Every structure is written in structure tokens, then in C-alpha cells.
Amino acid sequence: MKNRPAAAVLAGLAACLLSASCEPPELEEPAPAFDPQTVAAAVLEVLDAQVEAWNEGDLEGFMEGYLRSQELRFTSGNEIRRGWSNTLERYRQTYPDRAAMGTLAFEELDVRVLSEHAAQVFGRFRLTRESDEPTGLFTLLVERHGDQWLIVADHTSS
Length: 158
Description:
The protein is of the alpha+beta class. Helices cover 38% and strands 34% of the residues.
């Protein structure tokens, strides 16, 4: 009779384990399928918004396409600038008024999707101003931060 409580405990434990293993597992929602075309389209939207802001004379709006962080790296004219504020300051110095800003166009854009969280963009910028039409090449590293795609590195040459 000493084994009855032990047998009852074992039987209860077995029943508990059996019932736990018979329940269906909780189903997680499947992750959305990675679509490089969707990523490329989102990255191009950022660049379109930049062109629109620039052509309205809105440097701060143009900068919304960049990561607002000290991690941002902007390279141009043999100089490296780090940080969003330093990059904005460089744009303000280089383009002090609407005449200097001109009208911006991005051309020859080539978006290479690296992952669902990163893309590289190669392209040409062209400014149309009253007295000249400067142009140059750029390479951007764009990363997904939350629900936004933002430029984290910009290497521009003219």
C-alpha cells in the first residue's frame, strides 16, 4: 500500500504530460515574404521625396532622407562629415540660397537590394542653375530603421 501514492503521482504526471503533448502548438503568423522589388521601390520613394524637398528649397526636408544620428557618414570633396547636423551644415554652406540650390534631378539610378534591411544606390545628380549645370556621381547605403528607409552613408563626387 505504500506505493499507491507514488503510483497516483506517476499516473497524474503521465496524464499531464500526455495532455500537454496532444495540444496543438500555438501558431505564429508567418513572416511576410521578402520582396526585393518592394525594397527598391521604398528606397526610390526616399530619393523622390528628397528631390521634391530640394526643389522646394527645403534643405531640412531633403535631410529627412538621412539617418538623424552621429552614425551618418557623408563624404564629398575629399572630406568626411559625420552626423546629421554636420551634414546639414555642409549643405547650408554649399547651397546658401535657392539660386545656389538650383533644380535637382537624380539620374541613372541603380538600386541594388542587399537584404530586407539594406540597399545600395548608385546614381548621378544634376543641378540645373541659371549659370551652370553641375553634375556628379553618388553611392548611398540605405538601411531600414523601423518602418523607414534612411541613408546612412553617402559618397558623392562631382
